[in-house]
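Render AMOP domain-containing protein in 3D.
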Amino acid sequence: MKNIDTCTKWNNNEPNPEPLLQKIRDCPCIVPTSFPKEIYDGAETWKADAGCMASKQPKTCEYHKGAYGCYRHAFKSSGPGAQCCYDKAGNWIGDPFEGAGTLDRERAPDSILSLIQLKKHNDHDVIPWNNCCRNTGMAEEYCRLYFNKRPPGKCQNYIL
């Protein structure tokens, strides 16, 4: 199957995610159940992820089944970013098979008009997910390859 071969090749060529994880902010462990468009963790602002917004339930979170809402943060306009997903009670989800967010090698752009960053994010993060997870029917063996290279990171108890 082409997708499995593509997934396996991607996994073999993709570097260890640890250096990227060190460049992103830890997720807040808990967010308000009102799921505002932005949250401030005491030092940084997190923005609601347009692909998984609580206000659009149940027609959202296609890439994070089980999540109720997600937030994104990145220190720069390109490069790695954090995506953090939460259940309806506002608790961080750490298991990728239950809807966790993931490390982005190339952060999702803030605007669809950022075409170069959109392409980078698509090439490095979305297409590999499609090849390893969606197009294999979420087969755990291959989907796990993706999540090993794009882990959910960890959470920290910020004072929101």
